[in-house]
Amino acid sequence: MQSLPVFLRLQGRAVILTGEGEAADAKRRLLERAGARIVSEGEEAALAIVSDGDEATVARLQARGILVNATDRPELCDFTLPAIVDRDPVLIAIGTGGASAGLAKALRQRIEALLPARLGALATALHDARGAIRKRWPDAAARRRAIDAGLATGGPIDPLSDKAVDAVPDWLAAQADVDADRLETIKLRSADPDDLTLRAARLLGEADRIYHAPDVPAAILDRARADAVRIAASAPPAQPGEGLSLWLEMER
């Protein structure tokens, strides 16, 4: 990655905005939606948007230690502004590192069409049910597995279903315990992560630990949960450990 995606809480915080015209107006609307307090160049702030991409303004602000976005000047930017899919409190940000705003927009429109309008309500319902979820599954690993199973494709609270938010109480009452300890084998057809099957991609996203042959490429391992343990090995483990473990090897 050339950039680290982050979500900044700007409610009540100062952000410098310079420039005039349509680009400045668009950035102003975006900052106001995020609750930022818009100030002029001479005031104190941690972030700035230079809507006309003026190089001299960018240099002055960066000299003060301020992180700057320069519209249509990706080479000058400390951060870029993504295309946004808003299902508050769920936000999906799509960035191209400034390479193509048009591509980001096209992807946003595709994703907008996929996501139910009530997705944000599902997030709120799960937040409100945190106490009940912890009571139902006191063990953290079991809780994560149960949530993964509930949110899986076709699961009782599948986030792409517009009925998911209404199903949360029934899911809590009826959800069966997910198998605690198991080892799944994935034979990789190629070194290209785009060739992963849906099943393989899902398991990589859920695994607690990943045992893998030495020739499994890093690009495949990067598709796994960030906090899953990676263990290079010459053969599948006899005792893989608690939770979901995977054995990855290249198909011969």
Automatic annotation (TrEMBL):
Chemical reaction(s) catalysed: precorrin-2 + NAD(+) = sirohydrochlorin + NADH + 2 H(+)
EC number, as in UniProt: 1.3.1.76
InterPro entries according to UniProt: 4pyrrol_Methylase_sf, 4pyrrole_Mease_sub1, Met8-like, NAD(P)-bd_dom_sf, Sirohaem_synthase_N
Pathway annotation: Porphyrin-containing compound metabolism; siroheme biosynthesis; sirohydrochlorin from precorrin-2: step 1/1
Domain of life: Bacteria
Alphabetical list of Pfam families matching this protein: NAD_binding_7
Alphabetized UniProt keyword annotations: NAD, Oxidoreductase, Porphyrin biosynthesis
Biological process annotations from GO: siroheme biosynthetic process
UniProt-recorded Gene Ontology molecular function terms: ferrochelatase activity; methyltransferase activity; precorrin-2 dehydrogenase activity
Name the UniProt record assigns to this protein: precorrin-2 dehydrogenase
Organism phylogeny: Bacteria, Pseudomonadati, Pseudomonadota, Alphaproteobacteria, Sphingomonadales
